[in-house]
């Protein structure tokens, strides 16, 4: 298991003590408390309305001024219609369900993930995001026109975007189109930094990955 998973998954009371996850963080979030000291907010509605967020949606929860620990009632796909601006002291906890959130801007350090059989792309963006893909494993689908890992949802200007690949493993013809110049390394402090394994190690690291079939009162 990775450092975060090993911190909580062996504990049978994880669901009754979800906030213990706040003490397992690495990277930029290491010293963040998020919604640890706030009540639980349950997302029950996958829709998104940036103008008038409805109670029960993710957007409604993250704009509240009080601390919240945000969980999801069931599996869902949330397609954001605009960037998601969060107020302070929020934790989004998707453990126990499968939640997909479509986001296409900002900064992303994508590390030690496995991607295979994608339909259009594995990593994409549309609003000048900065992306560092490090130590990932990309196995391309069999179709020749789907081999590219990356996709920019714009027609021009993307060559200035900072997209980098480092220590990634490409299989079956997969390839990453880099762009931009200058460093896009995360500015982690010493306490936030963590070791990223080479992409060739990802199949072993992710052999038990995916939505966790977690059950109450059992290790996950």
Structural description of this entry:
It is a single chain. By secondary structure, the chain is mainly beta. 7% of the residues lie in helices and 22% in strands. It contains three helices and 13 strands. It has helices at residues 3-8, 58-62, 202-205, and strands spanning 40-43, 68-72, 76-79, 90-92, 99-102, 107-111, 114-116, 123-125, 130-134, 137-139, 150-152, 163-166, 169-171. The strands form five sheets. Strands 1-2-4 form a three-stranded parallel β-sheet. A three-stranded parallel β-sheet has the order 6-9-12, with no helix packed on it. It has a three-stranded parallel β-sheet with strand order 7-10-13, with no helix packed on it. Strand 1, helix 2 and strand 2 (68-72) form a beta-alpha-beta unit. The longest helix is centred in the first third of the chain and has 6 residues, at 3-8. The termini are close together. The mean pLDDT is 90.
Features:
single chain; 220 residues; 3 helices; 7% helix
Helix-strand pattern: HEHEEEEEEEEEEEEH
Percentage of residues in DSSP E strands: 15-25%
**Can you tell me the residue ranges where pLDDT is under 50 for at least 5 consecutive residues?**
none
Instruction: State the end-to-end CA separation.
Output: 12 Å
Number of helices: 3
Q: Give the overall form.
A: globular
| Structural class designation | mainly beta
Write the layout of secondary structure elements.
Layout (H helix, E strand, L loop, with lengths): L2 H6 L31 E4 L14 H5 L5 E5 L3 E4 L10 E3 L6 E4 L4 E5 L2 E3 L6 E3 L4 E5 L2 E3 L10 E3 L10 E4 L2 E3 L30 H4 L15
